[in-house]
């Protein structure tokens, strides 16, 4: 497979090169000063120009692109990026499941998620499942890095990294207020203002978004959510004539969430008849969460060629997701995933879930998944670049000391259901369903060297991770944590992660790039558990043919040890233990095309884009996955949750007074248990094609009317079968709003 991909892409690049006009002279300044493009030290690229000149595959979603649709759902923002796969859960993107190049998508736990260059998952080493994800509605840009030369961004180096770029301090006073309202009582209010006065710069931001929800409970209870976010930054910079230029920036971010979300989906039969219904037994399910971040950034430019950037950060995330977990009938306790998947085997349990019968006490067990996460650390990077006669050199060295933990203190209360209403019948002992602290102490360092010589760029790099993973389990009968029943365990990891990438420009309009790097994902805290490791290859070409701009990339990830996770979100027990899935191959192809249909029209612009991703996965060994999460795995089986085919197409009509944008996304079918051949009905999520629309009318340079439509054709479709049953995607929803700039 590796050789086939290599031959395909090399042949494609050669054809492009042959089609170029050989008399087209290259720019005399062949050593392009890519470092000068970086506008902020807490970004990966900072612009599309830098992204397209990486030696690895990269994508930059600009502020202009984010404003086209004003999405609050990260899934819809990422739909245009080849190599990104995801499956939805709640229809609003509150807890996304994102995969880069075939990594396990569950809770986005296998990719490095950052905000302003700092790890932002609640506990990225000890408990990486992202039950918190930064709100994309307040972001100015989103950066996606895939492929080679990922040694700068860890600890997850297999698929890549996603960096969310928050509000930047503007050069002069200005701001924006956006307000919209639409179907299902869905609304958004976003206000931002900032500026600079002398050596001080500032920005302040408020965001509220929420919805009444598009699902229906029998008692008409609220099924939506409400989220508030506040962000503030303050910067002090040296004087313009200072010999050494530097600044220090303080950032504060706070968010709170109340969402009436559940793990409980629908049976096959009920989804067919009423896909947007919810069972009465889920009426009290609710997530309450808060997130807080403090961050200090210091940038020191010792010379024009030597920069040191340091970040100190502290993140705290608290959440309690109180939700239905088990159903009891005549002393027989069953998990909701098992009941909904097998309603004919458990008719009495299912009747209680639906609220069709009056139950006895403690027939429904609701678990308080109560947890507190901490993540804190300090990181610094040194960047030094210099020039030769025909060369550009850049050396970046970085280090990070990091600590994170998940403090789990959970319990389970009993309920009865009478005439469709829940009543609490018992309070379970606190800590009985989880009373432990999992933590990680990690030191990471990397060095990456970039050499540009004429038309060739090389970027060898090396990352080092030293991780201590620990767990203190106080047991189910020690709520005050005296330590009488304390059990501990630990696991250590010490690993070097090398990588190298290259880029060669045949002409100004055609180049080939690629590389090879080691993929890594930390193990759990079970003693002796091995890390996830792989060797990853990519080869691609970027090209321009007239008005057509594109990128074609082939990738191959060779896992020597893939890790799976036992999380409740995929039907497991929720203990977060990882298990060895052995050898796996993941390969695929990514295509991105952009074309301007009206290049010579001074009044209108009509850009179109097309992106396609093909992903093939294959287990190379057989095993029985823990708690049946992936089922009985045989050699040749495909990974679950990863569709083979995806594509996105978009077209925009742009005028100085208005703009119209249409975007369609096709998600291929995928299996929910490992297997091969045709997918059984009970293990399949069908394909779908969903079209979104947005429009803007500019009254003047300051005031605009906005409109958005989600799921324009009102398709009814399933997005997943996890955590417990079939779940629908967002139906047709439209909103209107006003945007004011000042």
TrEMBL record:
Residue ranges constituting the TonB-dependent receptor plug domain according to the UniProt record: 54-161
Assigned GO CC terms: cell outer membrane
Presence of keyword Translocase: no
Predominant cellular place of this UniProt entry's protein: membrane
Entry's localization field: Cell outer membrane
Residue span(s) of domain TonB-dependent receptor-like beta-barrel: 286-712
Pfam families xrefs: Plug, TonB_dep_Rec_b-barrel
Membrane topology: Multi-pass membrane protein
Signal peptide (residue range): 1-18
InterPro entries membership: Beta-barrel_TonB, Beta-barrel_TonB_sf, Plug_dom, Plug_dom_sf, TonB-dep_rcpt-like
Any one of the GO BP annotations: siderophore-iron import into cell
Keyword terms, alphabetized: Cell outer membrane, Membrane, Signal, TonB box, Transmembrane, Transmembrane beta strand, Transport
Top-level taxon in the UniProt lineage: Bacteria
SUPFAM superfamilies for the chain: Porins
Similarity-based family: Belongs to the TonB-dependent receptor family.
Name this protein carries in UniProt: Fe(3+) dicitrate transport protein
């Amino acid at each position: 497979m590796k050789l086939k991909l290599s031959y395909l892409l090399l042949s494609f690049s050669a054809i492009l090169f042959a089609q170029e006009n050989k008399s087209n002279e290259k720019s005399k300044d062949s050593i392009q000063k890519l470092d000068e493009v970086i506008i902020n030290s807490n970004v990966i690229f900072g612009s599309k120009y830098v992204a397209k000149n990486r030696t690895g595959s990269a994508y930059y979603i600009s502020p202009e692109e984010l404003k086209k649709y004003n999405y609050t759902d990260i899934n819809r923002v990422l739909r245009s990026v080849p190599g990104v796969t995801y499956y939805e859960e709640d229809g609003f993107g509150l807890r996304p499941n994102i995969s880069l190049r075939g990594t396990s998508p569950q809770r986005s736990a296998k990719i490095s998620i950052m905000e302003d260059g700092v790890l932002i998952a609640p506990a990225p080493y000890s408990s990486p499942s992202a039950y918190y994800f930064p709100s994309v509605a307040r972001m100015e840009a989103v950066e996606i890095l895939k492929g080679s030369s990922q040694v700068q961004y860890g600890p997850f180096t297999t698929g890549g990294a996603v960096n969310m770029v928050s509000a930047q301090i503007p050069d002069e006073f200005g701001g924006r207020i956006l307000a919209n309202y639409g179907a299902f009582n869905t609304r958004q209010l976003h206000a931002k203002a900032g500026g600079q006065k002398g050596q001080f710069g500032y920005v302040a931001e408020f965001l509220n978004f929420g919805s009444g929800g598009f699902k229906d409970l029998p008692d008409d209870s609220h099924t939506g959510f409400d989220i508030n976010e506040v962000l503030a930054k303050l910067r002090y910079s040296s004087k313009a004539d200072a010999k050494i230029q530097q600044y220090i920036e303080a950032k504060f971010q706070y968010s709170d969430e109340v969402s009436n979300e559940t793990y409980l989906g629908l049976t096959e039969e009920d989804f067919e008849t009423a896909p947007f219904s919810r069972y009465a037994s889920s009426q009290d399910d609710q997530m309450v969460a808060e997130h807080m971040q403090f961050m200090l950034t210091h940038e020191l430019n010792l010379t024009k060629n030597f920069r040191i950037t340091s970040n100190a950060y502290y993140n705290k995330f608290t959440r309690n997701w109180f939700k239905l977990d088990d159903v009891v009938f005549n002393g027989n306790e069953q998990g909701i995933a098992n009941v909904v998947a097998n309603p004919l085997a458990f008719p009495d349990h299912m009747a209680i879930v639906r609220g069709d019968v009056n139950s006895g006490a403690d027939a429904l067990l609701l678990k308080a998944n109560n947890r507190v996460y901490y993540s804190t650390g300090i990181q610094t990077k040194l960047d030094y670049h210099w020039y030769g006669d025909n060369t550009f050199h850049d050396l970046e060295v970085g280090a990070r000391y990091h600590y994170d933990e998940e403090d789990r203190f959970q319990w389970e209360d009993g309920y009865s259901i009478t005439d469709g209403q829940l009543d609490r019948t018992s309070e379970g002992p606190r800590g009985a369903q989880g009373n432990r602290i999992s933590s990680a102490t990690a030191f990471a360092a990397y060095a990456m060297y970039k050499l540009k010589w004429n038309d060739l760029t090389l970027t060898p790099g090396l990352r080092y991770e030293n991780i201590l993973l620990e767990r203190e389990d106080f047991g189910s009968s020690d709520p005050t944590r005296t330590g009488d029943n304390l059990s501990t365990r630990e696991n250590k990891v010490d690993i070097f992660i090398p990588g190298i990438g290259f880029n060669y420009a045949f002409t100004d309009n055609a180049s080939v790039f690629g590389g090879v790097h080691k993929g890594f994902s930390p193990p759990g805290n079970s003693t002796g558990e091995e890390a996830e490791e792989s060797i990853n290859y990519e080869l691609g070409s970027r090209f321009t043919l007239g008005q057509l701009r594109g990128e074609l990339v082939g990738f191959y990830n060779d896992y020597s040890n893939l890790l799976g996770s036992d999380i409740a979100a995929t039907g497991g027990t929720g203990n977060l233990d990882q298990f060895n899935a052995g050898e796996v191959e993941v390969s695929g192809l990514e295509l991105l095309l952009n074309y301007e249909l009206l290049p010579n029209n001074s009044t209108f612009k009509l850009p179109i884009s097309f992106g396609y991703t093909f992903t093939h996965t294959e287990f190379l060994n057989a095993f029985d996955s823990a708690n049946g999460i992936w089922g009985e795995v045989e050699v040749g089986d495909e990974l679950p949750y990863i569709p083979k085919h995806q594509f996105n197409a978009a077209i925009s009509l742009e005028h100085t007074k208005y703009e119209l944008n249409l975007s369609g996304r096709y998600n291929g079918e995928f299996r929910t248990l490992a297997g091969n051949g045709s997918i059984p009905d009970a293990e399949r999520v069908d394909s779908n094609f969903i079209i979104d629309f947005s429009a803007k009318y500019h009254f003047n340079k300051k005031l605009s009317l906005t409109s958005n439509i989600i799921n324009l054709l009102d398709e009814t479709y399933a997005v997943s079968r996890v955590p417990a049953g079939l779940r629908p995607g967002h139906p047709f929803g439209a909103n209107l709003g006003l945007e004011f700039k000042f």
